[in-house]
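To: structure desk
From: M.T.
Subject: fold request, one chain
Message: Could you run this one when you get a chance? Sequence is below, nothing fancy, just the single chain.
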Amino acid sequence: MKEEKKILDLTSEMYKLILEKGEEGILQSELWKKIGLTSRDGSRIAIRLEKRGMIKREKVLDHGRWTYRLIPLRYPLHLGPIERLPCITCPFETQCTFDGTISPMNCPLELQGKGLADWVLSDYQLSKAQEE
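Reply: Done. Structure tokens follow.
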């Protein structure tokens, strides 16, 4: 049980480091050194991540030695924008229908500057600021 938890922790740590490198990926040999694993253990974990469809392993020649570049295929879902959606805490949510008096097209929160349009604009501005 302890050994299994250790492998899961190392797998998680490896995946986080691969995600940090983004589309560029990281060489498998570099990753082992960062985590302090043997090449055998590092390979096993990388293969496990590949089988789960979380990463892609591309064979590359680095300084005359064959290794793999580990590239993430799945990225974590960011729920920040959804958590800030005004509909979630809207007092009119139970009365809101697509074709009703209260609807996304005629949202009372818009009059207060807290509706969908403001949510979309503020989230767009936030994502632009994070890109810079």
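Reply (cont.): The first strand starts at residue 26 and ends at 27. Let me know if you need anything else for the meeting.
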